[in-house]
Amino acid sequence: MSYQAWFQCINEQCRERYPLNTIVYRCRTCGSLLGVQHDTQELACRDAKEWMKLFEDRYKSTQWPYGSGVWGKKEWILPQIDNENIVSLYEGGTNLFWAERFGKMIGLESLWVKLCGNSHSGSFKDLGMTVLVSQVKQMISEGAPIRAVACASTGDTSAALAVYCAAAGIQSIVLLPKGKISIAQLVQPIANDALVLSLDTDFDGCMRVVKEITEDETIYLANSMNSLRIEGQKTVGIEIVQQFDWEVPDVIIIPGGNLGNVSALGSGLLMMRDLGLITKLPRIVVAQAERANPLYRSYLRNFESFEPIEAQKTLASAIQIGDPVSVEKAIRTLKQFKGIVVDATEQELADAAALGDTTGMFNCPHTGVALAGLIKLLRDGRIDKSEHVVVISTAHGLKFTDFKVKYHEGALDFPCRFANKPIELPPRVDAVKEALQHALQKRREKNV
Ligand SMILES: *Cc1c(COP(=O)(O)O)cnc(C)c1O
Ligand SMILES: [Zn+2]
Predict the structure, then answer these.
(1) Which one of 105, 201, 268, 414 counts the least CB within 10 Å of its CB?
(2) Is the shortest distance between the CB of 223 and ligand 1 below 6 Å?
(3) Is residue 158 in some structural domain?
(4) Number of domains the chain is built from
(5) Would the CB of 259 count as within 6 Å of ligand 1?
């Protein structure tokens, strides 16, 4: 079977097509974003049961590259790529954490957290980057004069780009907003031999520069306006459904910044529906930080208009974006999935992340935004306690230890309700015994 995919303009009136090895990020006719379009008729020649069996047989196997959560679904992603050009670090296949204690605490019967941060570079960005860098390797093998791959980043995109490029032997260039990403995120591209450019601006400023830099076709653009990334990221929704034995949850909550990931989530689910693997769709909730909430503001106006804003500094630094590139795709997705948008203040996101941690999670601040959104929607009755809810955790908490340390030191500019300070003591048994006596008593009181 020879499956086909191509870039296609998302503007319904235009629908211009480009082969996937064209260096193009926006439609040359009308300027809209592109999506990757698959030949659904051809894919439908294999029935739903056969696709499910194929995906299950490959899932986490050692049969390279199909054990990857992304490449196990290769026919739905990049069907034409040669396996020898695939750059995979065994991405995807991340665990669904049954958040039983946290769910009970907030009054929800069935809560699951999809731990996308348990991945090679520590965030979901790996899912998209494996596809993009593989396609670049394919184009280079066909003789394309690509010297480097570049991105602007709030930290995780650059970490993923750098590591996939390093594995492939391709030069990466990353543009980062100076002083606005975590130390762990900064050291990742440095260690992986990227050319690291630290610019005295915010993410939106870096994005403007990288768009111009990549007008030179020898420098390929790796931001999510390049829809190759979306193709890989769309496996997250498919994988969640697969992990529930092909049952669709009622609600999926996802933190949103540049808004590529929510459109990716929607696109994977729609593809499953179109090919008959599922019949119902979940509701999708996008959670934003109040300090960077342009989508939330538009949602309050029923999406009748959208105004970019200047994002304010937020602990959820990976979503500190005021002018999201994929806003049109995101709004389209939300309209198809009875979407809801919520936002969370700094205190709400930090407390939600910390409370989750006390039940066995280790949340990044963006996951905190999603958990805080969930708490609000439950409280307002917009999510029912009997609903089956999945929260997408976008990065590993260990990338954000500075955030956690400050929280537990109580060093943020609001009260940190769940701060857990170390008790400093002289190294004597009597002192330790006495301190334990007190502390255990206090914990018992707190837990009743
Ligand atoms: C990139 C990122 C997001 C936001 O994804 P978008 O596609 O930009 O909406 C959320 N959380 C983390 C940890 C990220 O790295
Ligand atoms: Zn067009």
Answers:
(1) 414
(2) no
(3) no
(4) 1
(5) yes
